[in-house]
Design a protein that fits this description.
single chain; mainly alpha; two-stranded antiparallel ribbon; about 75% helix
Length: about 500
Amino acid sequence: MSDADQPIAGAPAKERHPRGLPVLFFTEMWERFSYYGMRALLVLYLVNAVGYERADALRIYAIYTGLVYLTPIVGGYLADRYLGSRKAILIGGVTMMLGHFAMAVPALLHLALGLLIIGNGFFKPNISTLLGTLYRERDPRRDGGFTIFYMGVNLGAFFSPLIAGTLGEKIGWHWGFMSAGVGMAIGITVFLRGQHTLGSAGLFAGRQRLVRSDWAHVLAISASAIPAVLLAVEVWQWAGAWWASLPLLAKFGAGIGLCAVAGAIPRFFARRDAEAKPLTAQEWRSMFVIGLIAVFVILFWMGFEQAGGTMNLFADKQTDRILFGWEMPASYFQSVNPLAIIALAPLFAMAWTRLDRSRYALSDPAKQGGGMIVLGLGFVVMALAQERADAMGLVGPQWLLFAYLLHTIGELMLSPIGLSMVTKLAPARLGAMMMGLWFTSTAIANYLAGVLEALLAGSGIPLYWFLVATSISGGVVLLALSPLLTRLALRRV
C-alpha cells in the first residue's frame, strides 16, 4: 500500500478516502475549467473575431477536438513506460497553460491549438490513472472516489463558460482565453502543493517523491512542445495538400489500408505479450462486441459534439438571448450539460441499481441504444427550432435548453455505461489498448461532428434532421442487436 492509501490518523473504523483525492479533484476541476472555457469560445472566436467562414471554423474545431481524444493514447503509453503518471500530469498541465496563453495572440492560433492537444495527451489519461493508484485492488471506496472526481469534472465544465464566456464575449476574446490559462495555472499549483498527500503514487517503484531531474524533464519536454508543434503544422499543411491531390479511389484504398492495420494490432499484441497464451475464441468475441458498439458510439458523439459547434453558433446567431435588457453570452448554454449531469447523475445511479436488481434489468447495449434514441429526440427539438428560426428569425432559449437536457439524459445512458462495459469485457492484457480503441471512436466522432455540416452541404438534407435519423435508427438497431451481443459476450453486459 502506498502512503496515500493510509487512512488519516484518528479516522473512524470506516476508512475515509485517501488524502490525495481532494488534490486530484481540484486539479481536474481547474483543468476542465480551462478546457471547456476554450471549447465554449473557440468557434465563436474564429467566426466573430478572426473572420473565418462558418465551415472553416467548424473544420478547425473538428480537427482540434478529434486530436484531443487521440493524443491520450500516446501520453498514457509514455507515462507507463518512461515518465510515470505524476510527471506526465505536470508536463501536460504546463504545456496546456502555455497553449491557453498563446490563444490570446491571434497570430499564434495554430501553435496554441497544438500545445493544447499535446498537453491534453499527457494530462487526460494520467490523472485518472493516478487516482486509481490511491486505492487498493478491490477497494470498496474506489467507485465512490471516482464519482466524487467526476463531479469535479462537471464543476469545472459548469463554471468555465460563465467566466471565460463572459470575459471573452463581453470584454475581449484574449481575456477569455487568458482566464482559461489562469485556471490551468491554478490547477498546476494545487497539484504541486498537494504532492505530500500522494505518497509514492504515480512514481516508479522505489521513488517516494519527484527529484531535481524530474523537474528538469518537465520543463524540457514542455518547452520542446513548441518547436514540435511548429514542425507538425508545416507537415500537416504539406500532407493536407498531398491528400487533397489524391483521387477518390486512392483515398478509399488508403482508408482500407489503415483499417487493416488497426485490425491487425490485437493479433500483434497477443503474440508479443502472451506467446504461450494466445487470445481465446471467447476473448475475440468480447473484443468484437466492444468494436461493434464503438461504431454506434461514433454515431452518438457525432451528434452530441454539435454542442461546441453548430449548436454554439445557433445560440450566437439564431437565439434570442436578451433577458431583462441584458444580452446573455452565447457560451452560457455550454453550462447546461454539466449542470444537468450534476443534478441527474445521482438519480441515474440509483435508478440503474434498482432496475438491475429487478426482472426488468437492461443489458448495457440496450441502455446505450436507449441513450442514442433520447439523443435523437433532442435533435428533433433542434430541427424544429432551426426551421422556426429560418422562418421567423430569433427563437427563444427554451429550445436549446430542452435539447441540451435530452442530450444529457442520453449521455448518462451511454457514456458511463460504455466505459464500464469495456473494463468488463476487454481481456486483461489488452485492457488499455481496448480503452484506447474506445477513445479512438470518440476522436473520429468529434472530427465528424465538426465537418458534418460541410459534408451535407448541397445534398438538401438538413443537418439536424440527418442527426435525428442517424441517432434514432442507430439506437433502434443497437436495441435489436443487444440480445445477440449479450450472447456473444457470454455474460450479462
